[in-house]
């Protein structure tokens, strides 16, 4: 048996709906026989017709409704059709869900699923990675699973957590990533994972960039370099300790993220490492992000816009030879 | 395993009366004149409280702004008065009367404005952003229109749980009615067919912007049909009409009619906040019927119809001032927040707090 990243997300939601009658799924096209633009909820409305609900194209109101339901004890899962459209719901996510516990002492346990990241031909409005933006605001947990197993266990944990969770699921991984079976339990939330061990360079990554970094590490191994790959798993909280421990072994850092370059997760990792682990570094830490333009439509442009195994190899190679 | 610990909001709200000493409050079945008097007494209390807040603000004792509901008490009190235990109330900026009638203690207000650590917001948020979500009084955010869909969600949760006989009431102004969030919220309320009443008060100004730069339709209530709501217009200066129309809307929503929109017309008899002298309101507008003071009109009705002995009226006034003074004195005695005692933690899940680093 083999299960994809997308199927793991569907299975996690099926389990959540079965185990907890406070859980409901709310979003555009998630219900009926359709089961979502990417089929992440396929078949769920048949089993739970009253708890898998289609909504109007109203991202603000979808999240607002989920917030109200969560305040009253429900555990809503919101599916944004594409992460890009969550910009319409930013106000509810940041200013309502993100501030509520701090202001009132009452947490808002919503999970907002964001199908994020680029795929060929998707263009500027169906390709964005929003994790750095959400991580910037207080009061939110931001998950970025990079494996089938994490996609499953982290989504279950996301719904269990009392605070709002932005769950970034990568569209490129939906079908490309497969596992033999789903685990009962993953690493604790907030703990990064050593995805590959090495002693020459640490690549810190998350989501689809972990897979690209692993491919790059494989390539660099042929040149004799042993590259360690750290998968952050959650960009907020950010597991600085695991990153620093890795750099203590390797002395070199490349941080790879798919979101835009200004600020963001890679900048945050490097700021923390230089602040707390400057003495561990043998070379200036480097980072690789998407380019500072909207995400292009044509595959020739798109594949050069985001980090990939090839340009990670080039960047890492230069850092290793420094 | 999922956590099974329920966070279900406890419905602790007790029926309150506007009097400081126990006097039976009119309930929903009370004859109209008793309800009128009860509503009037909440209005008196709200006015006395807000006059005090204004004077504290002018005396430099309140940090940030003061936003009052002068002239809007009749609409507001009707919003709070017909809600019962288990109902949801999402008040907005100018809803002191409604908040009190719904059950918010006066000391919540003074603690929030004066920054007491014991207040519901503990110095973390101020003025009209306060609320008690566990007691079904939602804490508004400043982004107008956002609370409509949140109210819808609270009602869906109740329906999911199989509760019966509940209603939610969300307040908005004609300014907030022009936001995208408001439109989305209204539409989703009707799609979900939740028992919701939206009371929109057209006080003729969005801060300083008059109606003719806010919207171009003849009458805002006409939007009700477009949303799938039932719509009602209301003279917001007339307390009896407010009680009748808003009370009726609450009753219809509770009985399973489609969501209800009430649009009240009146003039904001203050600035947007106390920092604002509202000099942009033309003098001739102040002579219009919608510019009358609802509190004065209600008092006139009480005197003309002999609903209350003039001595009793004077006592009520005195009592309102005494309650306000009491609430202010209580809050003034209390400790204010201290930065080094604050936990600076925006998550309830403590072990998932992000630590940037000890040395930053």
Summarize the helices and strands and which ones pair or pack.
The complex is a heterodimer of chains A (322) and B (360).
Chain A: E1 3-4, H1 5-19, E2 23-27, H2 44-47, E3 52-54, H3 59-71, E4 75-79, H4 90-104, E5 111-116, H5 131-136, E6 141-143, H6 148-160, E7 165-170, H7 173-176, E8 178-179, E9 193-196, E10 201-205, H8 208-222, E11 227-231, E12 234-236, H9 240-250, E13 253-256, H10 264-277, E14 286-288, H11 299-305, H12 309-321
Parallel strand pairs in A: 2-3, 2-4, 4-5, 5-7, 6-7, 10-11, 10-13, 13-14
Antiparallel strand pairs in A: 1-8, 6-12, 9-11
Helix pairs in contact in A: 1-6, 3-4, 8-12, 9-10
Chain B: H1 32-58, H2 73-81, E1 88-90, H3 96-102, H4 106-114, H5 146-160, E2 168-173, H6 180-192, E3 196-202, E4 205-206, E5 209-210, H7 223-227, E6 230-235, H8 239-254, E7 260-265, H9 294-304, H10 310-333
Parallel strand pairs in B: 1-2, 2-3, 3-7, 6-7
Antiparallel strand pairs in B: 4-5
Can you characterise this structure?
The complex is a heterodimer of chains A (322) and B (360). Chain A has helices spanning 5-19, 44-47, 59-71, 90-104, 131-136, 148-160, 173-176, 208-222, 240-250, 264-277, 299-305, 309-321; strands spanning 3-4, 23-27, 52-54, 75-79, 111-116, 141-143, 165-170, 178-179, 193-196, 201-205, 227-231, 234-236, 253-256, 286-288. In chain A, the strands form three sheets. In chain A, strands 3-2-4-5-7-6-12 form a seven-stranded mixed beta sheet, with helices on both faces. Chain A has a five-stranded mixed beta sheet with strand order 9-11-10-13-14, with helices on both faces. In chain A, helix 3 (59-71) runs parallel beside helix 4 (90-104). In chain A, strand 2, helix 2 (44-47) and strand 3 form a beta-alpha-beta unit. With 322 residues, chain A is an alpha/beta fold. By secondary structure, chain B is α/β, with parallel strands linked by helices. Chain B has a single domain, classed as Thiamin diphosphate (ThDP)-binding fold, Pyr/PP domains (Rossmann fold). Chain B has helices spanning 32-58, 73-81, 96-102, 106-114, 146-160, 180-192, 223-227, 239-254, 294-304, 310-333; strands at residues 88-90, 168-173, 196-202, 205-206, 209-210, 230-235, 260-265. In chain B, the strands form two sheets. A five-stranded parallel beta sheet of chain B has the order 1-2-3-7-6, sandwiched between helices. In chain B, helix 6 (180-192) links the parallel strand 2 (168-173) and strand 3 (196-202). In chain B, helix 4 packs across helix 10 (310-333). The longest helix of chain B has 27 residues, at 32-58. Chain B starts with 31 loop residues before the first helix and ends in a 27-residue tail after the last helix. Chains A and B meet through helix 3, helix 4, helix 6 and helix 10 of A and helix 5 and helix 6 of B.
């Amino acid at each position: 048996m083999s299960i994809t990243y997308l199927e793991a997300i569907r299975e996690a939601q099926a389990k959540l709906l079965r185990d907890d009658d406070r859980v409901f799924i709310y979003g555009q096209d998630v219900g009926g026989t359709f089961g979502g633009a990417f089929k992440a909820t396929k078949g769920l409305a048949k089993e739970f017709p009253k708890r898998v609900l289609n909504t109007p194209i109203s991202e603000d109101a979808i999240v607002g409704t989920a917030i109200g339901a969560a305040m009253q004890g429900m555990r809503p899962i919101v599916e944004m059709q594409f992460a890009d459209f969550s910009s319409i719901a930013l106000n509810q996510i940041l200013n309502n869900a993100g501030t509520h516990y701090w202001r009132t002492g009452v947490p808002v346990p919503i999970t907002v699923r964001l199908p994020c990241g680029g795929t060929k031909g998707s263009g500027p409005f169906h390709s964005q990675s929003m994790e750095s933006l959400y991580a910037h605001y207080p009061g939110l947990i931001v998950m970025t699973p990079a494996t089938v197993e994490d996609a499953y266990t982290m989504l279950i944990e996301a719904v269990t957590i009392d605070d709002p969770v932005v769950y970034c699921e990568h569209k490129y991984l939906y079908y490309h990533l497969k596992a033999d079976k789903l685990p009962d339990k993953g690493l604790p939330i907030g703990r990064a994972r050593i995805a590959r061990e090495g002693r020459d360079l640490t690549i810190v990554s998350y989501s689809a960039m972990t897979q690209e970094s692993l491919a790059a590490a494989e390539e660099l191994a042929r040149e004799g370099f042993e590259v360690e790959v750290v998968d952050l798993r959650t960009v907020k909280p950010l597991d600085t300790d695991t990153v620093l421990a890795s750099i203590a072994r390797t002395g070199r850092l490349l941080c790879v993220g798919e979101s835009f370059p200004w600020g963001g997760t890679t900048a945050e990792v490097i700021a923390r490492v230089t602040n707390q682990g400057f003495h561990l570094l043998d070379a200036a830490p480097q980072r690789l992000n998407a380019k500072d333009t909207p995400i292009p439509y044509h595959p020739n442009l798109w594949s050069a816009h985001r980090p990939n195994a090839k340009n990670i190899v080039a960047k890492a190679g230069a850092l290793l030879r420094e | 395993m999922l956590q099974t610990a329920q966070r279900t909001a406890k419905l602790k709200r007790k029926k309150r009366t506007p009097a400081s000493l126990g006097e039976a409050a009119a309930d929903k079945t009370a004859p109209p004149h008793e309800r009128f008097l009860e509503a009037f007494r909440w209005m008196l209390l709200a006015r006395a409280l807000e006059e005090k807040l204004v004077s504290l603000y002018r005396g430099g004792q309140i940090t940030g702004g003061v936003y009052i509901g002068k002239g809007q008490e009749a609409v507001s009190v009707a919003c709070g008065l017909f809600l019962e235990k288990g109902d949801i109330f999402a008040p907005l900026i100018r809803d002191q009367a409604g908040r009190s009638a719904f059950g918010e203690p006066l000391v919540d207000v003074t603690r929030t404005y004066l920054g007491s650590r014991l207040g519901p917001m503990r110095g973390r948020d101020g003025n009209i952003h306060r609320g008690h979500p566990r007691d079904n009084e939602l804490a508004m955010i400043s982004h107008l229109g956002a609370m409509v869909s949140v109210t819808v969600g609270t009602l869906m949760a109740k329906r999911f749980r199989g509760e019966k006989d509940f209603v939610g009431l969300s307040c908005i102004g004609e300014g907030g009615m022009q936001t995208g969030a408001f439109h989305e919220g209204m539409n989703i309320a009707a799609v979900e067919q939740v028992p919701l009443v939206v009371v929109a008060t057209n006080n003729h100004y969005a801060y300083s912007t008059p109606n003719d730069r806010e919207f171009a339709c003849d009458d805002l209530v006409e939007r009700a049909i477009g949303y799938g709501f039932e719509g009602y217009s209301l003279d917001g200066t007339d307390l009896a009409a407010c009680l009748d129309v808003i009370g009726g809307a609450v009753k219809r929503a509770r009985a399973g009619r489609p969501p209800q929109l009430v649009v009240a017309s009146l003039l904001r008899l203050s600035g947007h906040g106390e920092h604002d002298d509202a000099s942009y309101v033309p003098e001739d507008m102040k002579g219009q019927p919608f510019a009358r003071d609802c509190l004065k009109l209600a008092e006139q009705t009480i005197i003309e119809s002999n609903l209350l002995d003039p001595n009793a009226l004077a006592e009520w006034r005195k009592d309102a001032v005494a309650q306000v003074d009491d609430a202010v004195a209580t809050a003034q005695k209390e400790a204010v927040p201290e930065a080094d005692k604050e936990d600076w933690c925006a998550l309830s899940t403590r072990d998932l707090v992000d630590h940037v680093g000890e040395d930053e």
